[in-house]
Amino acid sequence: MIVNKPNKKKKGSPYTVFYVIMAIIFSVIIGKLLYLQVYKHQDYKEKADTGSTRFISEKAPRGIIYDDDGNVLATNKQNYVLTYMQTDEADKAFYSSMNKIFNILKENNEKFLDDLLLKINSSGKFYYNFKTSDTEAQKLVELRFKKDRGLNDLVQNTLYKDHNGDFTDDELNAINDALLSISIEDTFYYLVDTYNLYEMLLPEGYTSEEKKALAKSFVDPTIDQNSKNRDYVKESVDYGKRVTDELLKKYSLEEIRNYMVIRDAIKMKSYEGYKAVTIANNIKRDTAFIIYQKLSDLPGVDVSLEPVRYYPFGNLASHILGYVSSITGPEETVYELMGYDASTDLVGASGIESAFEDQLKGNKGGTTVKVNSQGRNTETLFELESYPGNNVHLTIDKDVQYAAQEALKDTLEKIRLEQPSATRGAVIAIEVKTGRVLAMASYPDYDPNDFAIPGELSDEKYEQYFSPDLTKFGTEHIQKTHATKSLDELFPLNEEGVREDFYDIYPRAMFNYATLGKIPPGSVFKPLTSIAGLMEGVISTTEYMNDTSGWWERDGFGAENFGHVANGPTDLRLALQKSSNYFYYETGYRLWDQNGRDVEALDSLAKYVWRFGLGVDPNSPQAANPTTGIEIEEGFGQTYNFTSWKNKIIETPMYSLVEALQKGVSTSGNFIFIPLDISKSEEDSEELKNAKEAIKNKIKEILEKVGTDEQMNDYTEVANLMLPEVKTFMKESVKYKQAVADYESKTGKKADLDDQADSVANAIAEYIISEQTTQITSFAQIVMDAIGQGMNNLTPLQIANYVATLANGGERHKVMLVDKITSPTGEVIQEFNPEVVDNLEIPSEYLQAVKEGMRRVNTSSENGMAYQSFGEGKFPIAVCGKTGTADFATDEIYIEQGRKAYGNYISFAPMDDPEIAIFSTLYDGNKGSDGAPIHKAIYEAFFKEELLKLDPSYASKSSSFVKYVQNAPKDNNTTNGMETTTNESDNTNITE
């Protein structure tokens, strides 16, 4: 019998669900791993590589600068550098690491690199560390500083929040004005906010929640985040101020700024990717070892060696060599396009360093490495070797340069005992037959080593170089010189409330007076006038002029000898010896008279002067870029000539006309009228402004025609031309209408405005024709030019080149400072050969007569220091010279400003076969002959071997020979010009 049993359900495993869940989990994990390691492998590999890869830049040594004998004037030395590499771990420990670093640096009397523009002085006051005294340049630097740090965006969002497209010029100007209006204190608070310096208050090992809470605690709860009129700048500044107030409970203002400096450097570097930031430059080897031993506790910090610029002789030839400086302001973009790192690279800022930057700069190298979480190098990926720059060999002689520089300084110090304002000067020595500069000194000078390491310029030197205390200086200047003008008159306050050196009195160490200063030559110009007069035949080597009164007069124009001394019968030689103004007034007059007495004749002297390099024909192609040929920055002055003089008269403010019209009487007194004021005023209506401008433009147009066929000489014609604008002026000027009312009230007469307009128009016509046109066409200027006065304004370099040209018989060379350029291994890359630019070919008879006169200058006992230096039996080599006391103002102005005339002196030697020519100028020296000891020191250095051959005991007879020649710095050319100077043990590897 079959029995049917019910089916039993098969029991499932209790682990089945677990297995299923595990299978799903592992499938997801495996899938994710496959996704990450296979599908996304390349993406994450690139991210990992990027995060751990760093480029460690290696600076290239700049090329060496040598003197003519192979002495090293500028080189490089190895320098221990402290750097910071940003990583996640380093960033977390940033404040603790920096605190340790700052303490180590302080304990070892080291400075950290501080090139942040915004600084704090010893009194706790903020200031911008500008490297220029030019206010416009300062504004550009300040704008770049603020824009680079993000203030530009805040200002734009505040002023033009919903702006689309490009900004207009007016909008950009408004943004710039707003940026400049942000005070330096508010800029500091903004940076405190931007760099999250509130983190300084966090404890070690803080959590993200603690960080968020602390950051939020400084936010102003009253700020409406949705407001359309939010002031983003104010919000940031207020936040930063609240943070600063809290920080000041624990840190000093200087300590807060120290952290800011490093944060700022990191921020600026971040624009270039992951690069190391320099914390400190030029630290001592012992300090470097201390830090190296603690690197395990300083994540991101490292020590390395870098080359730094070094000038072995300090101040020697500083204005020739120049200096290196950080890239700042508007220059940054230009240099970055040229491949420079604007945040770390130094470039030549002046002198040879700047002029030959492209040769001197080396090719930077570096290493691409992988780093660990502490910023330590774990693997080198790629190395690029750095390569030094090329070397520049100068024409100057170290010993001659030393003699020139030291003698100039000592001479000025001596003169200051009597002339307290004699604080500046320059001297230049040129090789006669080549145009090579043997020495060039400007005083005051500076030490270019001060600028070699960014951030190490002291506050005192910064102030001296770039931001002098003109209140203090001006007060002392007035006390010492008894100047009659007040402090506010001599050093007026500008719109920003900063004093300006309006009359150029402060001695500027960074200014090269030798190549940039422009001065009147005075009587040192007379040898050149002699040559022009002889070659034109208006004087001869044998003619005597009878100077019986010391007063010269021709055609209604007269002038006196210096001191009104009568020299009696005077020939060319005596005229040079006595510096007879009478003789040279007459020579200048004859040049004009013989050549036609017209405007072209006014250039009779200038045509010769230009050939000596003193100015250039303004109508020639050379006028666009006049130069002596020197390789460094120079000014270029001009001698008197008709065109330049006319342009100067035209561009000169019409003070005398404005004053006459304000007084109501013409300059001659021929016309009297109701006073009127044609000077500019902000209150003028548009019509009145146009009328005033039209009067001035018409005057200018009429004067521009002087000397041409269109010259206007008819008073009535000129008056009628001016009449419409004069009437418009009278109609539109409220001030004039009031003057008319006052006149009518006072006199009881009705003013005839047509008659008034005629009188004013005639007064203007008289001013144009009788005063301005006559001044432009007068022969008086060529007469004054003949003695080196008048509009002559020339650089010392130009005058030195003129002296060399004269000594060379009229052959003028291009002025040279550079002899050659060589590679780092010594191969000549480029040579600079002497170049003749003009040759007047002065007849030997004329040249000899001038030389004899100039020799007499030095042998005449009445010529003070010139005689003491080069008189008979006082110097073995015959030296030709000429003194010059060059006036730049009237006696009244000298007294007002506490100033004196320039003391100029020229010379060359030997007399019969000149090798070297020199010019010196002593600002406020008042006596040219006082420069003679400077020339003597230069000759002693240049002719030292010959002098000792002529007289073996010469040194015992000359204190200057001992001081400036025997005691000159020792040579450093021991390796034939291939030596580079280094610090002791600087080449030692710190890890050894």
UniProtKB/TrEMBL annotation:
Residue ranges crossing the lipid bilayer per the database entry: 12-35
Cellular location(s): Cell membrane; Membrane
Record domain Penicillin-binding protein dimerisation: where: 58-380
Domain Penicillin-binding protein transpeptidase intervals: 425-620, 786-939
Topology within the bilayer: Single-pass membrane protein
Composition skew (Low complexity), residue ranges: 972-984
Region of interest (Disordered), ranges: 968-992
Superkingdom, taxonomy of origin: Bacteria
Keywords on record: Cell membrane, Cell shape, Cell wall biogenesis/degradation, Coiled coil, Membrane, Peptidoglycan synthesis, Transmembrane, Transmembrane helix
InterPro entries per the UniProt record, alphabetical: Beta-lactam/transpept (IPR050515), Beta-lactam/transpept-like (IPR012338), PBP_dimer (IPR005311), PBP_dimer_sf (IPR036138), PCN-bd_Tpept (IPR001460)
Any coiled-coil regions, as ranges: 678-705
Homology family: Belongs to the transpeptidase family.
Protein name: Penicillin-binding protein
Source organism of this protein record: Clostridium hominis
